[in-house]
Amino acid sequence: MDILMASSSISVPRGTRDLAGEEAAAFVRLEEVSRKVFQLHKYSEVRTPVFESSELFKRSLGETSDVVEKEMFSFLDRGEREFSLRPEGTAGVVRYFLENKLYLKGSYHRLFYSGPMFRAERPQAGRYRQFWQIGAEYFGDPEATADADTVFIVSRILSEFGIGDFTVQINSLGCNNCRPKYKEALLQYLKGKEKLLSEESLKRMKLNPLRVLDSKEDGPKLQDAPQMKQFLCADCADKFRRFTGLLENSGFKFEENPKLVRGLDYYTGTVFEIVSPVLGAQNAVAAGGRYDNLVEFLGGPPTPAVGFALGMDRVVEAHFLNREKTGVEKSLIDTCCVIPMTEEAVKLAFDLAQMLRHKGLAVPPVQSYKKKLKNQLSSAAEIGAKWAILIGEDEIKAKYYSVKNLVTREQSQVAQGQIFDFVMPTQ
Ligand code: HAM
Question: Which one of 299, 322, 345 terminates a domain?
Answer without folding.
Answer: 322
